[in-house]
């Protein structure tokens, strides 16, 4: 009766499942790029993971706007890696990739120049200066674009000198970014300033003066605008370089310092008298200063005529002992 065990063994062998196949070789691990810079409008698999092999060019997300950045967290990155069969797992929930879009930056000065050109067409003087309300304004455009700016519309109020403009960059691009820009225009005046710090008592020479352009509304009424009123003068106190100078800031060079000994000259008809005196105040050429006669202690008003020299006008009797 050995037939029954043999048949049972055969039946069990037929019903048993086949042996499991050997597992396929695991894909090589890849590395996450945590900081990425892209130039186009799409983020590709190869931008995030290396090596991504023949799937590197697969687009997985839209790139941020030019000059902006996007952050992809660990959960999203893991789903993408699994979807494309990449051997990558995040080391923690805080792992991320930061993607920055390359851009060309159009600065505030270039934007202001284009707005001024548009305002000139509206009758504004070309020597005006444009001041933008947003002093941090910059426009980022794609790095593969042409650096052009168009002012598509501008409104100007001559009374307040304020404007509103619509600026587009790149110019003639239907998809260009359009920005509303506001500001004001100011008249610009060229004024002479010092090229170096000049101390009190020094004489300002021609080489010490240069021109700068300044807004007219920022100048004091008595600001010197003629270099002839500056050259040959002496500061009453130290003056800084590059700062507009007021008429009251300078004077003729001091020829008669206070408390210095001077020669007093008095001329009347064909007679000239001289005496020694002491100046009671500083004086430049042509200034009238008080001088004390050393011998008589008489105080007279005298006109400065040279270095330590003064002249008394022949008006009434003057003591010249």
Q: How do the helices and strands line up, and which of them pair or pack?
A:
Elements lengths: L2 H13 L15 E2 L2 E4 L3 E3 H4 E2 L8 E4 L6 E5 H10 L12 E6 L1 E4 L1 H13 L7 E5 L6 E4 L7 E8 L4 E8 L7 E18 L14 E7 L18 E2 L14 E2 L2 E3 L4 E8 L2 E9 L3 E2 L3 E6 L5 E8 L2 E4 L9
Parallel strand pairs: 2-7, 18-23
Antiparallel strand pairs: 1-4, 3-5, 6-7, 8-10, 9-13, 11-12, 12-13, 13-14, 15-16, 17-20, 18-19, 19-21, 21-22, 22-23
Helix content: 10-25%
Structural domains: how many: 4
Low-confidence stretches: 1-25
Tally of DSSP β-strands: 23
Walk me through the structure.
- The chain is mainly beta.
- It has four domains: 31-101, no CATH class; 106-188, no CATH class; 189-251, Type Iii Antifreeze Protein Isoform Hplc 12 (Alpha-Beta Complex); 254-312, SH3 type barrels, CATH 2.30.30.
- It is built from four helices and 23 strands.
- It has helices spanning 3-15, 45-48, 74-83, 108-120; strands spanning 31-32, 35-38, 42-44, 49-50, 59-62, 69-73, 96-101, 103-106, 128-132, 139-142, 150-157, 162-169, 177-194, 209-215, 234-235, 250-251, 254-256, 261-268, 271-279, 283-284, 288-293, 299-306, 309-312.
- Strands 9, 11, 12, 13 and 14 form a five-stranded antiparallel beta sheet that branches. A five-stranded mixed beta barrel has the order 18-19-21-22-23.
- Strand 12 and strand 13 form a beta hairpin.
- The N and C termini lie far apart (169 Å).
Summarize this entry quickly.
This protein has 321 residues and is mainly beta. It is built from four helices and 23 strands.
